[in-house]
Amino acid sequence: MNHDTRTGSDPDHVLLRTEGHAAYITLNRPEALNALSHPMVLRIEEALTTWADDPAVELVVIDGAGERALCAGGDIRAIHADARTGGSASADFWRDEYRLNALIARYPKPYVALMDGIVMGGGVGVSAHGSVRIVTERSRVAMPETGIGFVPDVGGTYLLALAPGELGTHLALTGAPVGAADALLCGLADHFVPSAALPSLARELAVDRVHTVLERHVAEPPAGSLATSREWIDHCYAADTAEEIVARLLASGVPAAGDAADTLRSKSPTAVKVTLAALRRARRLGPLERVLEQEYRVSCAALSSPDLVEGIRAQVIDKDRDPRWSPAALEAVTAADVDRFFAPQGANELRLVATASSQEVVW
């Protein structure tokens, strides 16, 4: 049986259907690189909740319309407008988005994410917490938040904190995108499948078991770059402070490390320091839910930071690529400045309950 499900608001931006024993979610805003809106998040959550209890649905597949992106993140123009006016729409969006991230991570059925093309920010949140994560030669996976004065969220600090050595710290602070091989190395994906095979793979999932379909399509990815950079990355990013990380990168004598230092120094100094603190705290917090709760505090605090408005202005609104960060240098960001982002919010706290892990799902 093949039918469309159209419930809730904004139905054309999230297409839902079932075929055979599979349910399919297609993010359908190709002109916006399938960026997530609040109604889209609610629609996905509603569908997943329904399908979890539907015995006819044995697995869920998520992909993006077009060939450019699964999802390039959230609607940061809306966040910019909200931050400028001191509104609460962004906080409301993040609350539901992070709940969705937790739901995906604990989903009781296989959740197959086709991470083709650009997968950034919120796109990582709806894919990299799944139980079966597939990248292609076109995949570009990143958490680029420090470039807009923000901090990796949607469970990004959880995922990057788990990456081998200090690879996650490098990706979080610089916002650098990675291809298929490096996404696999960092634990952001599980399998490589050539993009040309994705339509067949998606169709076969309607009638076959996940592991059987994967056996037919999984291949070796093109070589990445991070595996051969582990020595300088692990040494430099193990430093106690962001200032020392930059110093080690510059002193290493490795051209790629010098480039990383230049990239890092172009990001919001406040966001860089808060991101480093968030990653290291994430390593001690335990399950994803605790990290998402921390990220919610950090994200809400960022709404009142001048760097978020300025970063989005420079990168997205005016596109002059010349943000004026405040403070303008890492050395000027104090410990108190960083601690403010982690302050409890009382009644406004996000509280999530951990349930059975998606890793217990039988494919």
General description of the model:
Helix 6 (167-174) packs antiparallel against helix 13 and helix 11 packs antiparallel against helix 12 (255-266). It contains 16 helices and ten strands. The model is unreliable at 1-9 (pLDDT under 50). The chain has helices at 38-52, 76-85, 89-105, 122-125, 156-161, 167-174, 180-185, 198-204, 210-217, 230-236, 242-251, 255-266, 269-285, 288-302, 306-317, 335-339; strands at residues 2-5, 14-19, 22-27, 59-64, 69-71, 111-115, 118-120, 132-135, 140-142, 191-192. The protein is 44% helix and 12% strand. The chain has a seven-stranded mixed beta sheet with strand order 1-2-3-4-6-8-10, sandwiched between helices. A three-stranded parallel beta sheet has the order 5-7-9. The chain is globular and about 60 Å long. With 363 residues, it is an alpha/beta fold. It has a single domain (2-357), classed as Alpha-Beta Complex (2-enoyl-CoA Hydratase, Chain A, domain 1), CATH 3.90.226.10.
